[in-house]
Amino acid sequence: MSKEAQLSIAERDFILEALRENVRLDGRQPDDYRPLNISFGEEYGHVNLQLGKTNIIVRISAEVTKPREDRPFDGLFNINLELTAMGSPAWESGRTNDIEAYATNTLDRIIRHSNALDTESLCILKGVSCWSIRADVHVIDYDGNITDAACIAIMAGLQHFRRPDAVVRDGRVIVYGVEQRVPVALNITHKPLSVTFHTFNDSKHVIVDATLKEEQAAEGDLVIGINSAGDVCYLSKYAGAPADAMVIVKKTNVAWEKVKEINAAVEKVLQADLAKRAKIGMADESRAENDRLVQIE
Amino acid sequence: MVGPIASLSQLNRADGSASYKCPATGYSILGAVNAPIELPARRDALKPEEATVEVFVKPGTTTAGVGERYVEGILRSVLGKIVLGREKGFPRRGVVLTLAIVGGENVERGDSYLTILPALLHAGLLAMVSASVPLSMTFSATLLGVTKSGDIVRDPSPTAAKAAVSLHVFAVSSKNHLLLNESEGRFDFDTWELVRERALSICQGETAASADGDVSMGEGTASASLSGFIRETVEDQVYSDYAYNLDSI
Amino acid sequence: MSVPLVLLPSDEVPQDHLPTNNSNPLRLGPGLRILSQPSSKGSSHVLTATQAGLLTTDAKRNTVSLLSFPNRRYIPTVNDFVIAQIHHSSVDFFHCMVTPHTAHALLGQLSFEGASKKTRPMLKQGELVYARVQSVGVGAGAEVELTCVNPATGKADGGLGPLTGGMVFDVSTGMAARLIRASSSSAEHNDAIEGLVVLSELGKKLESLGGFEIAVGRNGKVWVDCSNAAESAVKVTVAVGRCLQETDQQNLHPHDQKKLVTKILRDMKLVS
Questions:
Q1: Which residue spans within C40-80 are E strands per DSSP?
Q2: DSSP C28
Q3: Which of A112, A180, B98, C146 is 20 to 30 A from residue C85's alpha carbon, by CA?
């Protein structure tokens, strides 16, 4: 069964009626996000994110590979989102569904196509060897708005991740273990996030960060990808009822404010985590062994 | 040695869920169970009299491959045996278990999947318990490696597992029966017998291996056994869920 | 009362935990089964758990049952009240969803109070009914049948029938069972056992606004209607829903439930 259970008439009518009074089921204002909670796991690039009851884990990983023939100077970066029955009983593990395809496409456009991760910096040796960065998104609890949640988690993960250091010596690529050389942060060019709005009652009522029930009751959606500087890198009025053009202009401003807020919140958690790691690192260093080199072909 | 960490029912959407982390091997697993539900795509394959157990293992940083399919098969057969699929509401329905590897290294292609099997088994069992799927018994499982010098190591790290001569996974039921044994590598029957005794003592906390000086003291007591750990994890959740009921007593 | 006992699957129920009243046959609740064990003196019977949970006994009714985890999926049981959603209708039946992603339950087109071929309700897809589980059938593939009348009286006892207007909120099946137990007898005493004061607290504070009406389905749904509350109907409904859901999710203690009610009513600007 690849569809969520339909909303009852009572629920749909009530959600629309309440919005006319600017009331949402959880007491939020139209432009409020649900409480956002981000934490990092033990490994670099492991992000746990809760947005209300939507719960996502992102893991970033890196491996050395051969660059594409047509882009010898570029490394690779892929976002992998696979929905399993863990997130919602409506999703069948191992089968793609609409949400998966739609969310992957949106994330690709906002993060990859806007070159948020500088792929040129992933090149190790032209045409021979480069880093391939992979972001795996695990949606473990689904209550709407996976695009925004995944986008925040991936960006936080990319900023948190450290790849092993690699150098080219005499035409050979040497990758240093994490114990041998301080691992390297990725080169992030800008921090775009997606902000998803849903429209109701002939686009008279527009809300941000809809829950699953609100999404089901909505007549249309609007996704804005924007960074802290206010540069719009993605805009999609994908489907549903037509929306007033002025709504889009107005909501772009709201989106910009939200992105600035969220990026600041992420930055805070990130700095706290790095400070904690630095403390542990100092303790470790005092009993570190001598450097040893590991060579790979 | 640092013991495992586990908790129950942390997810909202799934009917039951559990997390299990084994610090020694570094693996951290999240399990979710939806049951009993319809499996429309497999209507023809369903057994009419009982429930069908489906298992899906999702690796942390790669796409699922043959290794995942292999452990899924083991998990399906072990858990399928203990699920009482004829209880009310379950015949012809599905018990869908999803396990995500959310922490620890990837199992590289060609490496042994036995290292992660006990953690997957425990997370799967606890998620089933959390979803109140009727079960005939519970179990606990352990991984043991035999080194070149013949020492038996409990929960070897992925690196230690690679260096081991043989690897063994045992699952022992709450009724003290051997439920599962997967062994690989080179070993003789005497070694296997020693490993089995050690596994029994780890899982059930028996003092069967008292003649063997290797067994550390902690494992001999019931509370330090893995089955004791599973029991405590479940009890903790029941006590917290029914705090309102227990306070009034 | 004896010490609370948590059982895991395959654990035996100790003899001293069974009710001692022998006048009625012992009744087993969900999560327990009887096994016969061959022994040297012929076979003996033992009660074992099939789920994990807290063992509870009722000496009056001579029952023993296991309270399992509250977030579990609902499995239809005869006589339970449920809130079902119409999915589609056929000649004789409405096909209803009781829990998502399971087979539809059947509700007879004439299983309503005073319904005849001409007066039966015409329910559309997505409409809700408050119904009782009439039968769950036996064997594999058995269908669950619902009814909106009490077969003994032919009346819609306990508010059975279509639910119009209002809003449904999802709660855990454990919370739904608690709400039903707490309201089955209105005595304060019962509230204390279930540790639920949230409803009576809401009732007291919202009385002046017109009060509210609720129906609880064992399948984890609570229908709330405040059509008496006039212009504040929407806010009262949302407030009741939020209080119930937060009490459920955070497993709040009675004094925290009172605090929650005060906080949410103030938050919704319903009381100053």
A1: 42-49, 53-58, 63-67
A2: E
A3: B98
% of chain C beyond a pLDDT of 90: 59
For residues C156 and C175, state if they share a domain: no
Measure CB to CB from residue B138 to each of C8, C75, C136 and give the nearest one: C8
Task: Evaluate whether ipTM surpasses 0.95.
Answer: no
Question: Do C172 and C90 reside in the same domain of the chain?
Answer: no
- Whether residue C272 lies inside any domain: the answer is no
Residues 6 or more apart in contact with residue C22 via CB below 8 angstroms: none
What pLDDT does B217 receive? 42
Domain count, chain C: 3
- The number of domains in chain A is 1
- Comparing CB atoms, the residue among B34, B56, B100 nearest residue A138 is B100
Q: Say if the Cβ atoms of A140 and B37 lie within 8 Å.
A: no
Asked if residue A294 is part of any domain, the answer here is no
What CATH number does residue A44 fall under?
3.30.230.70
Residues of chain B contacting residue A87, judged by C-beta atoms under 8 Å apart = 13
Helices (H), chain B: 66-82, 117-130, 158-163, 189-204, 226-241, 243-247
Considering C32, C66, C100, which residue would you say is the last residue of a domain? C66
Domain match, C182 and C259 both? yes
Q: Does A86 touch chain B (CB under 8 A)?
A: yes
Contact check, Cβ <8 Å, B84/C53: no
Q: Does the pLDDT of residue B194 top 90, yes or no?
A: yes
* Count, residues in chain C: 272
- Domain at B25, CATH number: 3.30.230.70
Nearest to C100 by CA among C173, C181, C196, C201: C173
Alpha-carbon torsion angle C185, C190, C195, C201, nearest 10? 60
Residue A26 · residue C118 · CB < 8 Å: no
Q: How many distinct structural domains can be found in chain B? A: 1
Closest approach of chain B CAs to the CA of C72, in angstroms? 5
Q: Which tokens in the block code for residue C21?
A: 């009243």
Residue C226 falls inside a structural domain:
yes
C208 token code pair: 């002046």
Q: Which residue has the higher pLDDT, B213 or A280?
A: A280
Indicate the pairing of strand A162-163 with strand A184-185: antiparallel
Task: Report DSSP letters for B130-182, one per residue.
Answer: HTT--BS--EEEEEEEE-TTS-EEES--HHHHHH-SEEEEEEEETTS-EEEEE
pLDDT tens for the 297 residues of chain A, in order: 458 889 999 999 999 999 999 999 999 999 999 999 999 998 999 999 999 999 999 999 999 999 999 999 999 999 999 999 999 999 988 778 889 999 999 999 999 999 999 999 999 999 999 999 999 999 999 999 999 999 999 999 999 999 999 999 888 889 998 888 899 999 999 999 999 999 999 989 999 999 999 999 999 999 999 999 999 999 999 878 888 889 999 999 999 999 999 999 999 999 999 999 988 877 766 554 444 444 444
> Is there a contact between A280 and A170 (Cβ–Cβ < 8 Å)?
no
Q: Does A7 touch chain C (CB under 8 A)?
A: yes
CA distance B97 to B99: 7
Q: Which domain holds residue C23?
A: 4-66
**Predicted pLDDT at C272:** 63
